[in-house]
Write a structure and sequence with these properties.
The protein has two domains: about 230 residues, Spore Coat Polysaccharide Biosynthesis Protein SpsA, Chain A (Alpha-Beta Complex), CATH 3.90.550; about 70 residues. Helices cover about 50% and strands about 15% of the residues. It is built from ten helices and eight strands. The chain has an eight-stranded mixed β-sheet with strand order 7-5-6-4-1-2-3-8, with helices on both faces. α5 packs parallel to α8. It binds uridine-5'-diphosphate and magnesium ion. Magnesium ion binds next to loops. The site of magnesium ion (MG) has 5 residues, from loops.
């Protein structure tokens, strides 16, 4: 039985980059979930982020069979955050938007619980992992990032939540208004506010294929998170600079007094001098580096380039 035309419309936004190995299962499991939940008008907006495999072909054939599957093709690979932004912006007819990965690490079977929380009044629903599937170095890096982020940012993110979750219409409109280029979705979701509810789930292993987010990308993403949500690195430099200046002033005073009291022995102190020179040189270079992180981001924002370029829409 098809849903009522007045039923709430829920759109899933799913970035796709070289996911031919998981797409058939993703589409099958989403179709099963849609059909089991006839109280909603479902659609899935798959955003192809410049895949070089058969992903587009698979999505187009899913669309031909079932028009609830829609496709946005970006003109090249813009990265996960831009693809997500493109999909959320395209969900203009949806009353709620679910954001999720394509690789089935975010199981479609959890979506009805997210939607139920929204129906009960939440504007933002975060899916929070009861368990983590990452292990070893990756896991350590995630934990370290979350510790640093929550220490630095005024908008703490739940360490066990990622992109998976739901935004109600008001939150989607707010999210679409954020113009920045360096986007860190969990931080932006924390920033927009509204009523927030968490739903627990078990994070799965990737169903097939390889992770598409390289470690390099993840590190860049982490840096975006920190630098776009905190001025603390800059402030720490100011405080540290003031501290070093005070120490220098005290040392100068000490040596002047020493001279005036008539001590004849000239201090040797070559090692001390070289240590201070290297140390201060290092601190200054780090300082310039931190400034550069902010300056580069300011430059990117000032250029006002769009976050993504759409090549083609199918079904939208
Ligand atoms: N993805 C994307 N563009 C990219 C890299 C990844 O759209 O440049 C998509 C990918 O297809 C998947 C999601 O982002 O749907 C998360 O990627 P992945 O599973 O590789 O990341 P991880 O689980 O390691 O965070
Ligand atoms: Mg994944």
């Amino acid at each position: 039985m098809p849903p009522e035309p007045s039923a709430p419309a829920v759109a899933l936004v799913i970035p796709v980059f070289n996911e031919e190995a998981v797409l058939p299962e993703l589409i099958a499991r989403l179709t099963a979930m849609f059909d089991a939940q006839p109280a909603y008008r479902w659609s899935a907006i798959l955003v192809n982020d410049g895949s070089r495999d058969r992903s587009v072909e698979l999505i187009l054939s899913a669309h031909a069979r079932d028009p609830r599957f829609k496709l946005i093709e970006l003109s090249r690979n813009f990265g996960f955050q831009s693809a997500l932004t493109a999909g959320v912006a395209a969900a203009t007819a949806a009353d709620a938007v679910v954001t999720m990965d394509a690789d089935l690490q975010d199981p479609p079977e959890v979506i009805p619980a997210l939607v139920a929380a929204w129906r009960e009044g939440a504007d933002v629903v975060r899916a929070v992992r009861r368990t983590r599937s990452e292990t070893g170095l990756r896991r350590l890096a995630f934990d370290l990032f979350h510790r640093i982020f929550s220490a630095l940012s005024a908008y703490p993110v739940e360490p066990n939540s990622g992109t998976f979750g739901l935004l109600g219409r008001v939150a989607v409109d707010a999210f679409n208004q954020l113009p920045e280029r360096h986007r860190f979705f969990p931080g932006l979701r924390a920033w927009v506010g509204f009523n927030r509810v968490d739903v627990a789930y078990d994070r799965q292993e990737r169903a097939a294929g390889q992770p598409q987010q390289t470690l390099h990308r993840l590190i860049r993403y982490a840096a975006d998170g920190i630098f776009s949500f905190s001025y603390l690195p800059l402030r720490a430099l100011t405080v540290f600079g003031a501290f070093v200046a005070c120490m220098g002033f005290a040392a100068a005073l000490f040596f002047i007094l020493w001279r005036l009291t008539g001590s004849e022995r000239a201090p040797t102190g070559f090692t001390t001098a070289i240590t201070f020179v290297l140390f201060l040189g290092g601190v200054q270079l780090i300082g310039i580096g931190v400034l550069g992180e902010y300056l580069g981001r300011v430059y990117d924002e000032v250029k006002q380039r769009p976050n993504f370029i759409v090549k083609k829409r199918t079904g939208l």
